[in-house]
Amino acid sequence: MTGATNGKHEQADERIADVLVPVAIDQAYSYRVPKTLSLAAGDLVEVPLGTRMALGAVWSLRDGQGSNLKAIAARCDYAPLSGNLRSFIDWVARWTLAPRGMVLRMAMRAPFAATPEPIRIGIRRAGPPPARLTPARMRVLAALESGLAFQKAALAEAAACSASVIDTLVDEGTLETIALRPEPVAVPCDPDFATPVLEGDQAKAAAALAASVAAEDFSATLLEGVTGSGKTEVYFEAVAAALRQGRQALILMPEIALTAQFLDRFAARFGTRPAEWHSAVSPRKRARIWSGLAQGEIKVVAGARSALFLPFADLATIIVDEEHEAAYKQDDGVSYHARDMAVVRGRIEKAAVVLASATPSIESRVNAEQGRYAHVRLPARYGGRAMPAIAAIDLKREAPSRGKWIAPTLAVAMSETLERGEQGLLFLNRRGYAPLTLCRACGHRFQCPNCTAWLVEHRFRRALVCHHCGHIEKRPEHCPECGESELTACGPGIERLAEEVALLWPKARCLTLSSDFPGGTERLRRELDAIADGACDIIIGTQLVAKGHNFPLLSLVGVIDADVSLSSGDPRAGERTFQLLQQVTGRAGRFDAAGRAFVQTWQPDHPVIRAILSGDAERFYSEETEQRRRAGLPPFGRLAALIVSAKDRATAEDHARALLRTAFALPPNAKWKLAALGSLPGEDEISVLGPAEAPIAVVRGRHRFRLLVRAPRNADLQGFLRAMLATAPQERGSVRVAVDVDPQNFM
Ligand code: ADP
Ligand code: ZN
Hints:
Elements: E1 15-20, E2 29-33, E3 44-49, E4 52-63, E5 74-75, H1 83-96, H2 100-107, E6 120-125, H3 135-143, E7 150-151, H4 152-158, H5 163-171, E8 175-180, H6 200-214, E9 219-225, H7 231-244, E10 248-252, H8 260-270, E11 275-277, H9 283-294, E12 300-303, E13 315-321, H10 338-349, E14 352-357, H11 362-369, E15 374-378, E16 389-394, H12 408-419, E17 423-427, E18 436-439, E19 456-458, E20 463-465, E21 472-474, E22 487-490, H13 494-504, E23 510-513, H14 520-532, E24 538-541, H15 543-546, E25 554-559, H16 573-585, E26 596-601, H17 607-614, H18 617-631, E27 637-646, H19 649-665, E28 673-674, E29 685-699, E30 702-712, H20 717-727, E31 736-741
Parallel strand pairs: 9-14, 9-15, 10-12, 10-13, 11-12, 13-14, 16-26, 17-24, 17-25, 23-24, 25-26, 28-29
Antiparallel strand pairs: 1-2, 1-4, 3-4, 3-5, 6-7, 6-8, 18-22, 19-20, 20-21, 27-30, 27-31, 29-30
Helix pairs in contact: 1-2, 1-10, 6-7, 16-17
The chain binds adenosine-5'-diphosphate and zinc ion.
Adenosine-5'-diphosphate is lined by residues 196-199, 202, 225, 227-233, 382, 550, 590.
C-alpha cells in the first residue's frame, strides 16, 4: 500500500476479484482482473489454482493493485450465480462450519464439462413402400403413419420387429434417418391443466398456501394432515400460484419418494412432469436443468435435498414433502439439514416455504405453536375415508413359535385380506436374512473386521455383509473358530420373513423390497408402481416401502417388530418410532378397502405404542415436547457433535480430551458462558459433554469418540465452536475432527 514507485504499479484502475473455488477451503482467493475482461460478482471464471486450472465463482470485486497476483484466465459462458445463491452459500457455510468452497461445490455439481448432447437419430418415412411387404414391414409402416419420426429402438418396439427389419427398409429407400432435436428437459407446466375439486378443509388450506405465494415475501407454513388427507393435492396449489406469477417452485422429497407415481400425478395436474433432480439423473440432463433454472426457462423442479443448491432465477415457493424425514440430513461432506436450510433459502429468496407431513418433527411443531410458522391442518382423510383401525399384538401373550415371527392373529388377518383379493404389507425394518450369525458349538459370532457391528446374513447373495462399511464375505459352511457346521441365524430380517410367508401362503404373490433390491432406483420405481397396480398380494418391506407411497389395494399392515427403534440411544428414538409406525400403518385403506393394522410389540404399554394405538397424536406431541423442553434438547436448546476419529483408539481419545480442554481454556466472552465441568448447566450456559466412545465405536477401521455441545437457543453456538476449533491442537497423523451441527445421528 505504500508509495508505488515500482513502474508496474502505476495504473490505478486495476481490479481484483476474490474468487471462491469448489474445494475444501473457506477463503476466496484474490486474482488480478485483466483489463480486457469485464466481470461482475457471481460470474464463473477459470483461474490458475496451484498447478492446474480450476472453475470458480467471483465472490466480490474491488479496486486495488494486483500485479503480484495471478490473473483470471477467462470468464466462462455459464449463467452467473445470483446474489441470493451466493448469500445462501455463505449462510450454509457459517451455520455448518463447512468450508465455503465445499458448499459452493454443491451448487456447482453437474453442469460443467458436461459433453454436448449426442445427436439422436430418428427414422421416418421417405419413399414408396417396398416391393415385398411382410407383416413386420407393414407394422413398421403403420407405426410411422402419423409422419412423426421415431428413434430406432422405439420404432422396433412399437412395430414388434427387430432392428434389422428397419435397417433394410432404410437401405431400400422406404425410410430415412434424420437428426432429432435433443429431448426437452421440461415442457412448460400449465397451472390450469386440470384444477382439482377440493373439499372444504383442503380448499381452505390451498387458499392459505396460494396466498402465501402471492404475498411475494418470505413465509413458512407447516401443512399438517393425516395420511391420505390430500396434502399433495393441496400443496400443488402453491406450485400453481407460483406458475401463475411466471415464477419458480421447488418440491423437495426424500429421494426414494420421487416415484414415477408422484411424477405422473404431477403431470395429471400440470400437463407435464417436473424437472427431476437426484443422483440418478445423468450429468448431461443435470447440466440442462442447471442452466434452464438459471435462465428461468424451467419452472418446477422435484428433487432430493441437493436440489436446494440449484441456481433458481426467481424462486417463489419451496415445498418440503415429508418434512420430518431423517433423509433430509446429510452426514457426509457438508453436514446440513435440508429442511432447515430450505427455510433459510426461502428467507433469502423471499419465497413461501411449505413443510408438509402427517407426522411433523417436534421442531416444526414447536415453531408452529410458537407462531414462527403458520399452521395449516387437514384433520381427516379425503373422501370421508376412515383412518385404519390399529391393534397391538402383545408378544408376551401371543408369541410366534421359535424361528417364526408372524403371530397367529396377524396370520389370520392376512388370510382374510388375501381372500378378499386385497393386499397386505408386512413391515420389518431389517435388511437381509438375519442380523446375527453364531456358532452353536462354540458361540463364535461373525463380526465386521472394520466396524463394531455384527455381520448381517444375506441369504440371497450367500454372503455376510456389514451394513456400516459394506464389507462382504462369503458365508462359510463351517465355523472358522471350531470347525463345526453348527452356524445358526439369529433374529429376523426381511428375507427370512419372506421364507415364513412362502410357507404360510404358498399361492400368494409375494414381493420383498429393501434398498438391497437388485437393479437400482429405476427398477425399484417400477416395482413400486407395479404394486400400486396390484401386481402382488403380499409386500414385505423395510422403511423403503413404508413411506409416501399410495397402494390402492392395500388394506392390511402388519408391523413385525415395533420395538426395534424404540431402544436406540438416540434422543429422537421416541419421535422416530412414532413417525415410522404412523406412516407405515397409514398405508392401509387409503382407497376403497377399509384399513387395518396390527403392531407386534413386547411393550404394548410404552407411551409411543399407546399413542399409535389410540391415534392420540396430540398427546404424544405434547408429552414429547415437554420432555425436550425439560432436557434442553432441540428445539429448546441446540446441539452440535464433534466426532474425533483416528486409526487407533488411544489417539482418538487423546485428541478428543485435548479438544475438551481447549473449550475450557477459552477466554471469557460476552457471547457465551460455559458451564463448569460436571455441574448442571445454567439456563444461559453452554455445556460440553464427553468425550464418550461412539456407540458404534469403530467404523471403517476408524476409532471414534464424540463430544456433544449443548447450547441455549439464543447462544452463539457456531461462534463457540469456531473459537474452540481455532485454538484446538492440530489434527495430526490419522486424526480427523468432523463437526455436525444439529446432529440427527448419534451413533
Ligand atoms: P397425503 O399426501 O396427505 O397422504 P394425498 O395427497 O396422497 O394425501 O391424497 C390421497 C389420495 O386422495 C390420493 O389418491 C389423491 O389423489 C386423492 N385425493 C385427495 N384429495 C383429492 C381431491 N380433492 N380430489 C380428488 N382426489 C383427491
Ligand atoms: Zn463394517
